[in-house]
Amino acid sequence: MSLLRYGYIAGPLIGALWTFVMAVIACMVMSFATGEGLRPVLIPSLIFGAWLGFVWLPDGGRSRGERIVWSSALAILPALAFLLVDPAIVAAEGTSLTTLVLTWILFGVASAWPLEVMLRPLPFRSANRHEFEDAVIRFLTGFGYVFFTAIVAIPFYVMVMTSLKNQSELLQNPLDFSIDLSKGWGLFRSYQELFADFNFGTYLWTSFYVSVITVFLTLLFSVPGAYAVARLRFRGRKAFSRSILLIYMVPMIVLALPIYIAFSVTGLRNTIIGLVLIYPVTTIPVALYMLQGYFRGLPAEVEEAGLMDGLNRLQVIWKITLPLALPALASVSLYVFMIAWNEFLLAFMLLDDPSIFTLTRGIASLNSSEIPRQHLMAGSVIATVPIMLLFLGLERFMTKGLTAGSVKG
Amino acid sequence: MTTATPPTGTGPLGKREARLAWGLLFPTIAIVSAVVILPLLAIFWISVKPIGLADLRPPAPVVREALRGSDDNLRIQYRVRNSSQSEAIAGVTLTDTLPVGLSVRTADERCTIDDKQIRCDLGDLEGGDRDEIEIFVTTDDEEAAENAAEASVPRMTGSGNNILTNFEFTGENFARVFDGNEFWTVLWVTMFYTVFGTIGALLFGLFAALLLNKEFRGQGILRGLYLFPYVAPVIAVAFAWIILFDPFSGSANALLVQMGVTDEAINFFGERPLALIMVTVFEIWRYFPLSFLFILARMQSIDTDMYEAADMDGASPFQKFWYLSVPQLLGILSVLFLLRFIWTFNKFDDIFLLTGGNAGTRTLTVNVYEQAFAISNIGAGAAVAVVIFCCLLAFSFFFFRFISREEGL
């Protein structure tokens, strides 16, 4: 371990790891962008990175500018040698030179620049604990950003790009996500077909009003309940708030089976009414739990003042508590809307009639071998975009609301 | 002088408050118990009954009415059959209104005609039985009579043996669930999925929270981006993953082949150990944002004084993390662990959409669906659901013992 503390050992190690990661990332980015084949090579990229990590190390009181100039001068020849003789990134057959050069530039910049920042705290010789750990943390931070951004972005990128292509293009080269902009509006053919032939307009509308009704009903039931649990003293209060938590731990599939049976027998299956009856019940416990947390945080004195001035409890709730709790109501509504919008299991089990499908149920119906998969992805995009926009617009509320009470996933 | 004693018991004000509380809670309790408690009881009931998907519709007599023949042979014909092939129906009766313009000549001896009301008593109808009733009539206008006959709908009564409500029980469902190795395989898969899914999501969440626990430009954007997997509809992201990892035309495989990691395409969701790992990775991917949000919220509420003191004492970054942050986060981490553990255990949609429970990914929840709908044995599905519920009770016992100490969530 203590050997690692020497700058000239830690620096090249960090450099090697980072450079290899960047080689992989550069290849992935360029492959996804152009569809052409690129391959990172393990050993050369590690050696190149180690060299980079070595020359980038700060040494004896040189200023940052000096160091960069010096190390670049030192680095450029061996770097070129590495790139040309035993390159860190090789191109597959049929890859254009432009792509390769672009990849190299991307790779070079993405390796060298962050590496300089990472190695800044590390001295050339023996580093103390702070300096060493600081460098490691900088490396981990850089790696973390790249890693998380990649894993989150790639599936969504694939989703959007697939929806803009057609079946033969997709089969020909699954990596090629470049878009032919000359097609103009033709790019959105899958979307047009979904709206024209697959009723996605109706699904969108059904999903929307089912979600809105769910939000409304949920608030209607959970606001009085949450208020009672948060403010009023009664026997069994603790047991009650526990059982709320317990209820929202019951798995949906366990309930879905008897609900399916009951709805089949009573004829509520395959109706929107049945869906609207069942959705709020799945969200009321969550909403109640979130709201009661918020109500507890409101000062009781304001309400007591209201009571002294002759309001009764219900008026207090309506005129004092609710206006104060507006931010919480907004976040709960948003969250409930999200749950209802994304709900899949119940819609899948209860709805058979294509004229009343919700969006998620509609997408499920696209999952067949006869329907090309760009339609499936276009459907997914249609379902994802509204909730994303809503969420990004109101993210602040959402984050607060989610963490205010623990939340079901 | 008398000593003043504080009042004991509940005073009238307290009673009024408690009454109001229960009044406010009543709608919630009513609807939640209707949709949660009743189905849970129903699950226990169904789990000990021999019931399949086809038995959901109880046996009922079905009738078809037609006006046949002409002149002397003119007759109303009722063809009755039992909808079930195996179950008998007892006390079948038929009632109908005699169409206007018809007068009865002779009727089947099982029928009585009283003031235009036809009432026939057919006795018992065995499974798969058919019966026929003919009533000879005369009329002036055959065409009008035909229309009139078709306009009046005959009503049937009869009590079939409804498997849902009778007292026939069986232990076969449970015997089937626990039968052989399958149950242990399912349990092992569930445990693997739950344990690794939970721990993975927590660790990734912790990592992401550490990354974003500082102010910098673009922090809000990254935070929003990292929440995407959680906010997007599960069906959309699950299909995106399926397409991304498709063995024939998936981009991930193309990329891996291109990078020289593998020679031939990998069937990510179709091979035995790999599929389970992939669904677990999906679970981690989808739910790390939730842990990340909670951990970040907790981190931002830690007092900075402590870190300043640690800086004065010369603590290194890792020491600060290990000796200061981790103990502070332990509470939220353990609560999150328990919550996520339970919810991952309950998860159904993800695996159902990704693999349908094939290739060794069948968890308990997927097994409910598999038994009830794929094999059409609702009783067995309910039995699995009962097993899940019992596990859940055990977990929540731990949860509540723990959460009473960690109420701060």
Key attributes of the depicted protein:
heterodimer; A: 409 residues; mainly alpha; MetI-like fold; 2 domains; two-stranded antiparallel ribbon; 18 helices; flat; disordered C terminus; B: 409 residues; alpha+beta; Immunoglobulin-like; four-stranded antiparallel beta sheet; 8 strands; elongated
Describe this structure in words.
The complex is a heterodimer of chains A (about 400) and B (about 400). Chain A is an all-alpha fold and about 400 residues long. Chain A has 18 helices and two strands. Chain A has two domains: about 1-155, no CATH class; about 190-405, MetI-like fold (Orthogonal Bundle), CATH 1.10.3720. Chain A is about 75% helix and about 0% strand. In chain A, strands 1-2 form a two-stranded antiparallel ribbon. In chain A, helix 14 (about 325-340) packs across helix 18 and helix 16 (about 360-365) packs antiparallel against helix 17. Chain B is α+β, with helices and mostly antiparallel strands. In chain B, about 55% of the residues lie in helices and about 15% in strands. A four-stranded antiparallel sheet of chain B has the order 1-2-7-4. Chain B has a four-stranded antiparallel sheet with strand order 5-6-3-8, with no helix packed on it. The longest helix of chain B has about 35 residues, at about 10-45. The chains are: A mainly alpha (about 400), B alpha+beta (about 400). Chains A and B meet through helix 1, strand 1, helix 5, helix 8 and helix 9 of A and helix 1, helix 4, helix 5, helix 6 and helix 7 of B.
